[in-house]
Amino acid sequence: MVATYESAIEQIAQSVFSTMLNVELIRVEQPAPSDHDLLLATVHIVGAWTGSIVLALSPEAAIEAAAAMLQVGAGDVAAADREDVAAELVNMIGGNLKGVLPGPSFLSLPTIVSGNDFGMKVRDSELLDDLMLSGGNGVLRLRLYTQAGDAI
Fold it and tell me: Partners of 112 in the beta sheet?
């Protein structure tokens, strides 16, 4: 039996967005948007459990998150601001999630993927959880991957 962490991921994301951004997230059941349209941030967890968490923010969610965290107007948010805030959010989510995964383990520095017409793949991994959440004006997607063969 493969363990999933869907409810933990959802609760952690809701807590981070509520505390840091004053944004209430709700679970939505809708088709996931293409990664080509999203700002992606990922951290890797290595140790007793090895895997990755990928946070994908719609353009609207990225702007709203950056404006809230930096306490500026949406029109004052630069691309670098969106990337910095996405990196910080995935780092907080990953750090909290690491606490519920088998340990000991270590968290990598965040990686950001942005632009147009790109693809991202977490190599040698299996998708455990895939959640769509909405808050404010945009959607976000959280995916948890585990190293192939390490599913517990």
Answer: 41
CATH number for the domain spanning 36: value is 3.40.1550.10
Query: What whole-number distance in Å separates Cα of residue 4 and Cα of residue 10?
Result: 12
Expressed as residue numbers, the domain containing 29 is: 6-147
Please tell me the total count of domains within the chain.
1
Nearest to 21 by CA among 79, 94, 72: 72
- What's the pTM? 0.90
CA distance 109 to 45: 10
The pLDDT confidence band at residue 117, using thresholds 50, 70 and 90, is: low
112 located within any domain: yes
Task: Output the CA torsion sign for 124, 130, 134, 139.
Answer: positive
